[in-house]
TrEMBL record:
<protein>
    <recommendedName>
        <fullName>Thiamine pyrimidine synthase</fullName>
    </recommendedName>
</protein>
<comment type="pathway">
    <text>Cofactor biosynthesis; thiamine diphosphate biosynthesis.</text>
</comment>
<comment type="subunit">
    <text>Homodimer.</text>
</comment>
<dbReference type="GO" id="GO:0016740">
    <property type="term" value="F:transferase activity"/>
</dbReference>
<dbReference type="GO" id="GO:0046872">
    <property type="term" value="F:metal ion binding"/>
</dbReference>
<dbReference type="GO" id="GO:0009228">
    <property type="term" value="P:thiamine biosynthetic process"/>
</dbReference>
<keyword id="KW-0663">Pyridoxal phosphate</keyword>
<keyword id="KW-0784">Thiamine biosynthesis</keyword>
<dbReference type="InterPro" id="IPR027939">
    <property type="entry name" value="NMT1/THI5"/>
</dbReference>
<comment type="similarity">
    <text>Belongs to the NMT1/THI5 family.</text>
</comment>
<keyword id="KW-0479">Metal-binding</keyword>
<keyword id="KW-0808">Transferase</keyword>
<keyword id="KW-0408">Iron</keyword>
<comment type="function">
    <text>Responsible for the formation of the pyrimidine heterocycle in the thiamine biosynthesis pathway. Catalyzes the formation of hydroxymethylpyrimidine phosphate (HMP-P) from histidine and pyridoxal phosphate (PLP). The protein uses PLP and the active site histidine to form HMP-P, generating an inactive enzyme. The enzyme can only undergo a single turnover, which suggests it is a suicide enzyme.</text>
</comment>
<dbReference type="Pfam" id="PF09084">
    <property type="entry name" value="NMT1"/>
</dbReference>
<feature type="domain" description="SsuA/THI5-like">
    <location>
        <begin position="14"/>
        <end position="231"/>
    </location>
</feature>
<dbReference type="InterPro" id="IPR015168">
    <property type="entry name" value="SsuA/THI5"/>
</dbReference>
Length: 299
């Protein structure tokens, strides 16, 4: 009897989810007696709520949100990563930005503005660059997740958080002369990664199914590296993507090398991330990472 696993996607269906698509199209999940239901959340950050409601078993998110959720006393645990890209603050070169200190006084685009999230990132970068600033020294802009459009329409001078395999490519495709300051280069723990999360109860009760799920994800990532052209064809066919669309091709090509063989994450990494989040005012307490991350199934 097949076990159904509903998985909440991070944002909308896109090349980040190719391992899931390959696992389904190749019949590998079925071979492991698993059926997959991919769910696009109505809101970008509502995955944990859907897990609590029983609408999802697993969700894709970023380490940043896992730590924030756990610090807010949500019953959540991460158990595997599968994608690691680069990214940070994308900026328009013609705005006189060449280093993080140049962001002072600039218009910063990010979802949730004027909330603390995007401002904490640029403030940390400026301070790492030797600058001195306050949160009020930046102008928050909220154009949703349409980072490139905010820059193209001159609503903002820089945007955060952007991924190298998506927004940077999209902006350049649209004719913008952009670059980016990488998180890890300017004092911020690198959370440009995608991970799987669930509730401790689901992980405990469905450990065998989740282990088989990860077995297929690992098999699919092997396939991506060994047969990238076929992997891309499978994705295009599944999503009805126009093979001739230049932007889609660029984004997919840039995403294929981002899938990682190493599903584990160091507890020291999560310590660094939560310390930065507390210092930035995003969370108010530090928790032992072993309470919200496990490498038990990632080896």
């Amino acid at each position: 009897m097949e076990e159904k696993i509903s998985i909440g996607l991070e944002w909308f269906l896109n090349p980040d989810h190719i391992p899931l698509i390959i696992g389904m199209e190749k019949g590998w999940f079925k071979k492991e007696n698993i059926s997959i239901n991919m769910v696009e959340p109505e809101e970008h950050f509502d995955a944990i709520n859907e897990i609590k409601k029983g609408n999802m078993d697993i969700a894709i998110t970023e380490p940043l949100h896992l730590v924030e959720d756990r610090a807010n006393d949500e019953s959540v645990i991460g158990f595997s990563r599968f994608l690691h890209t680069n990214g940070g603050v994308m900026y328009v070169k013609e705005k006189g930005i060449t280093r993080p200190k140049d962001l002072i006084g600039k218009r910063i685009q990010y979802p949730g503005a004027p909330g603390l999230g995007g401002l904490a990132i640029v403030k940390t970068m400026v301070e790492s660059d030797g600058g001195v600033c306050k949160l009020e020294d930046f102008i928050p802009v909220n154009n949703g997740f349409y980072h490139s459009d905010a820059l193209l329409e001159d609503k903002a001078d820089a945007a955060t958080l952007t991924f190298q395999n998506f927004e940077i490519i999209e902006a350049k495709h649209k004719g913008l002369d952009v670059e980016y300051f990488a998180l890890k280069d300017w004092g911020i723990p690198d959370f440009c990664q995608l991970i799987f999360i669930t509730s401790p109860k689901i992980l405990r009760n469905r450990k065998s199914a989740i282990a088989r799920f990860l077995k297929v994800i690992r098999q699919a990532i092997d396939f991506i590296y060994e047969k990238p052209a076929e992997a891309k064809d499978i994705y295009n066919a599944f999503t009805n993507m126009d093979k001739a669309d230049p932007l889609s091709n660029k984004i997919t090509d840039a995403t294929l090398p981002c899938f990682t063989y190493d599903f584990s994450m160091a507890y020291e990494y999560y310590d660094d991330l939560q310390i930065w989040l507390k210092k930035s005012g995003k969370i108010n307490k530090i928790i032992d990472p072993k309470k919200y991350w496990t490498n038990e199934l990632s080896q």
